[in-house]
Amino acid sequence: MLATASTQSCAVTRSAFTGITAYRIVTHMASQHTKITAAVACLLLGILAVLLLTIPTEDLYEPPDYMYGIVLDAGSSHTTLYIYKWPADKQNGTGIVTQHSECHVKGGGISSYAGLDGGAAGSLQACLDDAVRDIPKARHELTPVISSPRDTERILREVSHKIRSYPFNFQGATILSGKEEGAYGWVTVNYLQENFIK
Predict the structure, then answer these.
(1) 21 has pLDDT over 70
(2) Is residue 184 pLDDT above 60, yes or no?
(3) pTM exceeding 0.85
(4) Is residue 5 predicted with pLDDT exceeding 60?
(5) Sign of the Cα pseudo-torsion (184, 188, 189, 190, in order)
(6) Based on the number of CB atoms within 10 Å of its own CB, is 147 exposed (0-12), middle (13-18) or buried (19 or more)?
(7) Catalytic residue among 102, 141, 181, 194, which?
(8) pLDDT value of position 130
(9) What is the rounded CA–CA span in Å between residue 168 and residue 131?
(10) Domain definitions of the chain by residue range
């Protein structure tokens, strides 16, 4: 009986010792797990901080929500640069175009520069500079420029050369015939009267 009591006492002591040891092992493992998790989190935050410090800030901005287009109405009595914009994400490839801004070129129309080399092109500089500021830089190369000078070929070449010196997507200028100008006017009037929507 003494042997049984002694054996039971050893078993209880061993069980208690095993329980305490298991508790210490579990506590130690949890402590190690917490330390490892904290170290990995610090490492990941450090890598993220280094990446954010090395990426140029202009790369972090969202792309603009609009696309832009420039129309240069270069007539004989006046020249005006219009900037239009429309949603970059369109439904069914269509979007509502709105006028963003306009700039009236100082001086007369481009025909008033007929005898002055570089005069017509130089007159556009202030408005083209405004367009560079008005249109987000990320959209410059995507911005088409439509020019419709209605005068001589020499002035047309001069104006085209000037526009090509800017970061826009200029694909050439053409002289509008009276018929083309009338067609564009018809589209404009009908659009403004909302005849295309009804």
Answers:
(1) no
(2) yes
(3) no
(4) no
(5) positive
(6) buried
(7) 181
(8) 93
(9) 10
(10) 2-58, 66-192
Of 3.30.565.10, 2.40.128.110, 3.30.420.40, 3.40.50.1100, the CATH number of 66-192 is 3.30.420.40
What are the pLDDT digits (tens) for 90-139? 666 667 788 899 999 888 777 777 667 777 778 888 999 999 999 999 88
d(CA 128, CA 178): 26
Does an H or E element contain 183, and which? Answer: helix 178-192
State how far the alpha carbon of 81 is from the alpha carbons of 77, 101, 113, 135, 150, in Å.
14, 8, 17, 13, 14
Distance CA 118, CA 35 (A): 72
Chain mean position to CA 195: 33
Cβ atoms within 10 Å, residue 124: 23
Spacing of C-alpha 3 from chain mean position: 87
Within 10 Å of residue 56's Cβ, how many Cβ atoms?
A: 6
On whether the CB atoms of residues 81 and 173 are closer than 8 A, the answer is: no
E strand or H helix at 182: helix 178-192
Q: Is 158 a catalytic residue?
A: no
**For 157-171, how does the pLDDT look when each residue is reduced to its tens digit (9 = 90+)?**
777 888 888 888 887
What percent of the chain has pLDDT above 70? 67
Q: What is the pLDDT of residue 12?
A: 47
